[in-house]
């Protein structure tokens, strides 16, 4: 949690979109089925994915809805979503901040936030999304399960050296976490439950979708994973980016000369909040 006067700016994820799909770990298999069972999704209704990034979550859930709208303020993310979703006729992609949802989007059965809510003016966004949900609609916050042990024993390749990568990022960018033009010395805000309760939601219902399956990662994917993070977005390194990437690849090569890594897929955690009509 933090009380620091930081707010979103357009450089927060600048340059990360091209790395996002390749670099970020996938959601756990079975996520769509778990949401469908919990919410009675049947291929109809409308989904609003807020902070949609390159469309990963929205496209993974599109078969559960009649229409999908993804919203993100980053032009690169919207471009990637349009590319990834070119074959999905149900999907529409809108460049906008969640705090300023365009009028005319209509109402929705479900609003999802894929690890994005903490970057927003949460009280304003919760109230705004509450207004565009249909009676009986729901809001779902989806994220990796934090603090989950993901042992790598018995996997065929070394694990990605996250600790060494973190040290290298701090060497180049300083000890305080970067975020766009600002800093986040104490991280992003917490107490999501209080925010959503103030906006008129009830809940939450918590669902954990198990991960754990082995994933093989290449050195290129590990590099993409670093550049997909707001705290190590490409633009933060400025003219030192080539040197940083060279050092990063050196760390990876020393860990695994063949350039292959293993890790276990994280579980996915979902908190479902329902509108007050369902009391």
Indicate the topology.
Elements: H1 17-23, H2 31-39, E1 46-50, H3 56-61, E2 67-72, H4 75-84, E3 91-95, E4 108-114, H5 122-132, E5 133-144, H6 162-173, E6 178-179, E7 182-183, H7 192-198, E8 201-209, E9 214-218, H8 219-227, H9 241-255, E10 260-264, E11 268-275
Question: Top keywords for this entry?
Answer:
single chain; 279 residues; two-stranded antiparallel ribbon; 11 strands; globular; disordered N terminus
Describe the structure.
The structure is a single chain. The chain has 279 residues and is of the alpha/beta class. The protein contains nine helices and eleven strands. Strand 4, helix 5 and strand 5 form a beta-alpha-beta unit. Helix 1 packs across helix 8 and helix 5 crosses helix 7.
Poorly predicted spans:
1-6
Strand order of the largest sheet: 3-2-1-4-5-11-8
Could you report the average pLDDT, rounded to the nearest whole number?
92
Taken as a percent bin, the fraction of beta residues is: 15-25%
Number of strands: 11
- Computed CA radius of gyration, to the nearest angstrom: 19 Å
Query: What is the number of helices?
Result: 9
- Which outline best applies? globular
> How would you spell out the order of helices and strands?
HHEHEHEEHEHEEHEEHHEE
Largest sheet: 7 strands, mixed
> Percent range for helical residues?
25-40%
C-alpha end-to-end distance: 30 Å
Structural class: alpha/beta
């Amino acid at each position: 949690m933090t009380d620091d006067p930081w707010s979103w700016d357009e450089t927060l994820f600048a340059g990360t979109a091209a790395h996002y799909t390749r670099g970020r770990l996938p959601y756990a298999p079975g996520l769509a089925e778990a949401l469908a069972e919990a919410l009675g999704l049947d291929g109809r209704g409308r989904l609003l994915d807020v902070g949609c990034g390159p469309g990963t979550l929205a496209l993974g859930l599109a078969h559960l809805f009649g229409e999908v709208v993804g919203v993100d303020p980053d032009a690169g993310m919207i471009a990637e979503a349009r590319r990834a979703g070119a074959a999905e006729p149900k999907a529409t992609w809108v460049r906008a901040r969640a705090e300023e949802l365009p009028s005319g989007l209509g109402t929705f059965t479900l609003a999802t936030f894929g690890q994005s809510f903490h970057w927003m003016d949460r009280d304003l966004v919760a109230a705004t999304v509450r207004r565009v949900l249909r009676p009986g609609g729901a809001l779902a916050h989806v994220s990796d399960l934090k603090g989950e042990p993901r042992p790598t024993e018995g996997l065929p390749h070394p694990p990605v050296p996250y600790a060494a990568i973190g040290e290298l990022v701090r060497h180049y960018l300083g000890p305080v976490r970067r975020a766009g033009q600002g800093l986040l010395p104490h991280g992003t805000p917490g107490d999501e439950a209080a925010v959503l309760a103030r906006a008129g939601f009830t809940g939450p219902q918590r669902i954990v979708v198990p991960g754990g399956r082995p994933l093989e990662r290449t050195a290129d994917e590990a590099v993409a994973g670093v550049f997909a993070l707001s705290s190590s977005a490409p633009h933060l390194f400025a003219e030192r980016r080539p040197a940083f990437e060279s050092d990063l690849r050196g760390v990876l090569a020393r860990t695994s000369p063949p350039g292959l890594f293993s890790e276990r897929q994280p579980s996915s955690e979902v908190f479902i909040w329902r509108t007050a009509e369902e009391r």
